[in-house]
Design goal:
The structure is a single chain. The protein is an alpha+beta fold. The protein is built from four helices and six strands; from the N terminus they run E-E-H-E-H-E-H-H-E-E. The strands form two sheets. The protein has a four-stranded mixed β-sheet with strand order 4-3-5-6, with helices on one face. It has a two-stranded antiparallel sheet with strand order 1-2. The longest helix is centred in the middle third of the chain and has 12 residues. The chain is globular. About 30% of the residues are buried.
């Protein structure tokens, strides 16, 4: 099985990258999260931003419009909203599908993991989170888990 850190996806400019490439040499944990700007969990951007400022942590957001059409904007609109409202400066990738037949390979892989309650399979809603360590080991968290609870 391919290491989670090496699964390719498109960044915000349409270029191919990986979590490993986005991380710094000192990164010990990556937090991958499907995000949306008009969701009840959108406030979690603030906690994700705080988490992204911790040493050894790289947060990567994947805007997704598959849940209630809660991320309808362009990449520029999403970035402006998150920066102006929550001070977000962690990377936001290209808008992506996280479930279904068009799910990116990264999220198809992440969906194979279960959270502490034993729930796996398709991403269920915005702001599901995945904590990935430097070995590529994945821990899945539900949307209701606050970013501050991950580490």
């Amino acid at each position: 099985m391919e290491n989670t850190l090496d699964i390719a996806f498109k960044d915000m400019n349409g270029e191919i990258t990986t979590l490993r490439e986005l991380g710094a040499p000192s990164t010990e944990h990556w937090v991958v999260v499907n995000v949306a700007s008009a969701c009840g969990f959108t406030r979690q951007y603030a906690g994700l931003q705080t988490l992204s400022q911790q040493d050894g942590v790289t947060v990567v957001g994947f805007p997704c419009n598959q849940f209630g059409a809660q991320e309808p904007g362009t990449h520029e609109e999403i970035c402006a909203f998150t920066a102006d409202t929550f001070g977000v400066d962690f990377p936001l990738m290209a808008k992506t599908d996280v479930k279904g037949e068009h799910a990116t390979p990264l999220f198809a892989h992440l969906s194979s993991f279960s959270n502490a309650s034993g729930k796996g399979g398709d991403i269920r809603w915005n702001f599901e989170k995945f904590l990935i360590n430097a070995k590529g080991e994945v821990t899945r968290f539900s949307s209701g888990t606050e970013p501050e609870e991950l580490l």
